[in-house]
Amino acid sequence: MTDTAPAKVALVTGANKGLGHETARQLAALGHTVLLTARDPALGEAAAAGIDGDVRFLRLDVTDADSVRAVGEHVAEHHGGLDLLVNNAGVTGIPRGTARTLDELTVEDLTSVLDTNFTGVFAVTQALLPALRKASGRVINVTSSLATFERVATGAAQRPDLLPYCASKAAMNMASVFYAGALAESGVTVYAVSPGFVATDLNNFTGPKSVEEGAAVIVRYATADAATLPDRRFLTETGTIPW
Ligand SMILES: NC(=O)c1ccc[n+]([C@@H]2O[C@H](COP(=O)([O-])OP(=O)(O)OC[C@H]3O[C@@H](n4cnc5c(N)ncnc54)[C@H](OP(=O)(O)O)[C@@H]3O)[C@@H](O)[C@H]2O)c1
């Protein structure tokens, strides 16, 4: 018999590359059992195989109800509880190298981004609620400082094609507040965490921070004792920022 604590089970969405992949790697290095999820099985399998530790691939397209349901059932059957859910999968809806005007934006541009960044987060969180409650787990919603009204008003609004992305992350932040309040009694903690501007595919690798630095922000808040975290739910590298 050993007195080693059992490994915590963490699920990361959109973890075949970028911040999700590096978050999975850092969590595995801390001894977590990581459920690395991705929508493309080949990319997901390869990403999981490239990380040392207990890393298991699960297919998850956050916009596909069957896929979301299957992951919820898998976690309930094989793990019971879920200690950590990192809602990381995200899109900007801005094709590389383009800069559309306000007039060029379509309803489809808006709904496709909301489907992934907002409805997808809601769907995955709902499917995993029983497992999160069972483990008194934590939810980290990976957000952006571009979700703040002030930041948008003073800069991002000059890029109209960022409207879907900024609106989706603001909606995700709102959901984070609701979940945090509704789940408090069950011991589940919920935070919206902004990793900073990180060089990934999402921004054509223009961000000044490395994925290691960005993922470290996510992992810090994912693993910190809730009692040590600020009583605010929109967290950045340096603390909290206004909604
Ligand atoms: N990079 C930054 O500066 C920055 C700043 C603030 C917040 N964030 C947020 O950080 C998160 C990760 O972004 P990243 O920068 O690491 O970008 P990334 O390298 O483009 O990774 C995005 C990930 O999301 C996945 N994804 C997209 N749609 C999906 C779906 N329907 N189902 C499942 N997975 C899906 C992608 O999978 P595929 O490979 O199959 O497309 C990919 O694995 C996003 O939520 C983003 O908004 C990033």
From TrEMBL:
GO molecular function: 3-oxoacyl-[acyl-carrier-protein] reductase (NADPH) activity
UniProt key word NADP: yes
Cross-referenced Gene3D superfamilies: NAD(P)-binding Rossmann-like Domain
Keywords: NADP, Oxidoreductase
SUPFAM superfamilies in UniProt: NAD(P)-binding Rossmann-fold domains
Residue stretches making up the Ketoreductase domain: 8-196
Tagged with keyword NADP: yes
EC numbers, comma separated: 1.1.1.100
Family of this protein: Belongs to the short-chain dehydrogenases/reductases (SDR) family.
Name the record gives this protein: 3-oxoacyl-[acyl-carrier protein] reductase
